[in-house]
Write a structure and sequence with these properties.
Length: about 270
């Protein structure tokens, strides 16, 4: 029996048991490793969305002063939270998971301990979501420098960013478990991630889109994140519960799919 098969047999006996000690072990390992490269990760995860905010906010802001009664810089600033969450969750999940599985063989070592695939995927996703929840708040801080008034509703933004980041982290892990080559991530980035980022209500309201595009936008988890964050800043609405439900559903579905597919991949 190979090492992967032996690990797989052990995992099958423990599936369904999310043990706190196993999750803590995965999280501690990630935190220790993160301490060695946090500067570069923090720089890329915060500067890129900020550049989008400044470019769109002041570029289009010179042509469009207000959108739906909101100053355009503030409209983009609240929407760019979703972009920051996306960049700091789906890409680290895709590339990091693939590298650790295929090149570094980190997962083989972790699964030799009393940790199963469910705990491994959950721990990885929780850690990535925690970072996304933190980095996702940066665009709001930048927007406040340019005139966005703080509000009590902003206190829920880290929670919304964390929940959204959890779904996208699981999505990234799922993609990493499906792909046999790291170059194939280009297809996902071009066909899935980039279009969803653009059609999320971040830079322009979706009610300006054709009817069919508005329907598709409502299936976009990033759109629901943008709507909740924007309402948290300018005033909550009853529909925000539905937006939150869509984000939670996205996270649950991608979480279970990522676990199932990663189990199959690691047994091979």
């Amino acid at each position: 029996m190979t090492a992967g098969a032996a690990a797989g047999a052990g995992q099958r006996r423990r599936v369904g048991r999310l043990e706190r000690s196993a999750l803590a072990g995965v999280l501690v390992r990630e935190i220790v490793n993160f301490s060695s490269y946090w500067r570069a990760t923090t720089f890329s995860s915060t500067v890129e969305p900020t550049i989008y905010l400044l470019a769109f906010g002041f570029g289009f802001g010179a042509l469009v002063s207000r959108v739906n009664g909101i100053p355009y810089v503030e409209f983009v600033g609240t929407g760019t939270v979703a972009t920051a969450v996306l960049f700091s969750s789906v890409f680290p999940a895709m590339f990091g998971t693939f590298v650790k599985r295929e090149f570094q063989r980190t997962y083989d070592a972790i699964l030799a301990a009393p940790v199963d695939t469910e705990e491994l995927v959950t721990g990885e996703a929780l850690w990535i979501a925690t970072r996304a929840g933190t980095y996702g708040c940066v665009p709001l801080l930048v927007a406040m420098v340019f005139g966005l008034d703080p509000s009590w509703g902003m206190l829920v933004v880290p929670f919304v960013a964390f929940t959204t980041g959890l779904g996208w982290a699981c999505f990234g892990i799922l993609i990493a478990s499906l792909m046999s080559s790291i170059e194939n991530f280009n297809y996902v980035t071009s066909i899935v991630v980039t279009p969803l980022m653009l059609v999320a209500g971040t830079y322009f309201p979706i009610d300006a889109l054709p009817g069919w595009a508005q329907v598709l936008a409502n299936l976009n988890p990033l759109f629901h994140c943008v709507e909740i964050v924007r309402h948290a800043v300018f005033g909550f609405e009853a529909v925000d519960l539905a937006h939150l439900g869509a984000i939670v559903l996205f996270g649950l579905v991608t979480w279970r799919l990522a676990i199932r597919r990663m189990e199959r991949r690691l047994i091979q």
